# Entry
Amino acid sequence: MTQPVRQRFTFEEYVQLDEDTGYKHEYLNGVVWAMAGGSPDHAAIAGNVLTLLNNALRDQRCRAFTSDLRVRIKATGLGTYPDVSVVCDQLELDPEDPKGHTVVNPRVLVEVLSPSTEEYDRGEKLEHYKTIPSLHEVMLVAHDRRQVELWQRHGDKWVRSEALEHDTVELESLGCRLSVAEIYRDPLT
# Structure
């Protein structure tokens, strides 16, 4: 006889599950689900964004992180791994993560969209992100065209803008601009 699958986890148990399995999972309301790996294009685009941000932030008290950094949205409880995160001034760690590997204060989050996650990233996940008090901007980078959707907090409202291939994306909270062409740069083509 097999054991029933466990249905609910505490946040601490979820953190331990990630540690024990070596796989990334998302967490919400006690439910844990595995995150799929990305395509080579997805990984390259995320790498390009990370490189551009690291270069732009060189003289600031901000640091860009890969998708290995877990972010927790305290207002909703979502634990997830954005493709790129930027934290400024100091890391605020989630006290419910005994390993100290989860931050709660990103300033900018970037998601590279994929066919399987685009609807979720543009919808439910974006709404979770918008509840983070420290968050100023969210970049949604298309996978199938050279287009970046930027959501920026202006007071109590979030404003959407779009940048295409020959445009730049202005991250006001970081005081930097990213070239859309450089985000999609592929020296192998």
Q: What stands out?
A: The mean pLDDT is 93.
